[in-house]
Amino acid sequence: MKMKKIIITALGIASLSTFSSCKKYLDINQNPNNIVETAAPIDLLLTNVTINTGFMGGSDLYRFSALLTQQLSGQTTGGETQTQMFEKYLIQSADVSNAWGTYYATTLNDIEVILKIAKANNYPAYSGVAKLLKAYTYSQLVDAWGNVPYTEAQQNASGILSPKFDDGASVYTAMLALIDEGINDLNTTSTGLVPSTNSTIYSGAFSTKKANWIKFGNTLKLRMLIHYSKLDNAGMVTKMTAAINAAGVTYMASVADNFEMPFINQSGRFNPIHQFEVSRTNYLFANKFMVDLMNSKADPRRQFYLTQFPAGSGLYAGAKAADLVSQKYSRIHIYLRGAASGGTPLADGSYNPLPPSGITYTGDAPIRMLTYAEYNFIRAEAALYGVPGDPQAFFTAGITASMTNAGVAAADIATYLAANGTLVGTNAQKIQQIINEKYIANFGVVMEPWTDWRRTGFPAITKVSNAVTADIVRALPYPQSEVDVNVNTPAQRADISTKYIFWDK
Fold first, then answer.
1. 382 falls within a domain
2. Strand pairing partners for 166?
3. pLDDT per position as a tens digit, 137-166
């Protein structure tokens, strides 16, 4: 992807800065081939980390999870595509190597260097941000694979080239503690460098953006705790109640607090969802399950999420696995791709995927990774279990935040809430309402719709007709790249529809 060029450029600058700063003669007691990590420019390292975090939020794991939870459908104009394979659960070890490698070899490695530099130079603002990004990254790894390298990861300098795989539950415990550490660091008076516009997430003056990072950390903690709802509901309620009742704790309070990565309408800086749509035309369409769910409620987000089919009809149509080859479906639209212009429909009411006859997009929609809308749905669900809060109030706030973020007019939001915004029935039925709305709100959010389905059973998706596994996928296979080099990699998973993730019990 073109965004990789930005990452490579930044890394190259970091490496050049490291080497050019060396003015001493070689020390025979030092290996000249080893880069001195603490000499790397911390500002560029954070740029690399935030770019990678945002890029991965709209890349492989996003597509896997959106296909598995039937938000998107893999289609083609001839010959089976990779997305069609994923949709029927044919996800192989080689398919996940890129995501795994980016997380471990790039993002987490850079985070560890930031932490070392920050510790050596007393930069608590940098260490706080890095710890929150590390917790977010490891939560993604555990939610996708389960047991992953943690305690021995990023230990090449210590001679550990084959790190052991830690139990996912222990990694989660460590990350929840790390979030607290990160927030404590952020609340420490900084005596040195602080992040600024070099962070592509919450970019700007740290005196202003520090509050956003703290809200993100606290909200991430709630997201991770709600994942225990099936494994240990009582324990989850206790921990979440303590977190919410703690004095002075702040959470996301508006759409402006969204943990997201902005992109630019410029070649090489388009968001990865848009880039994939351009480079892999006709690989993805809206899924029938999600479209039918939105159609059943006349959801006003459709005009922002999806193109109409037939064009200009005010109607929306989704594809499903094993459908015949066709382009007669709704496509991803401005919410995930940026502002649109032009486009001439074909005679059958469909659009060509690319200009000049297709719609032109700016490609600068943000990649949303944890939103204010999601925070409200987490609180609504948790309140039904006994955590402080009014489930109805949070449910209403979640829908409102999602629609506001999508660009829905206030009058249309009010109409939708009047028809669909009241929780009714048993607690189980209310949870289904909450998760269904959260599923729509989290269109484009990596992993979380898949995680919600695995732990709640909602939304009520069913196995596709052409599935190659016993049931819907519940964990990813270990990457071939790790199998090839790490002797401690567990045995490859024979059936990825098995419950491998610790909270998926």
1. yes
2. 148
3. 999 999 999 999 999 999 887 889 899 999
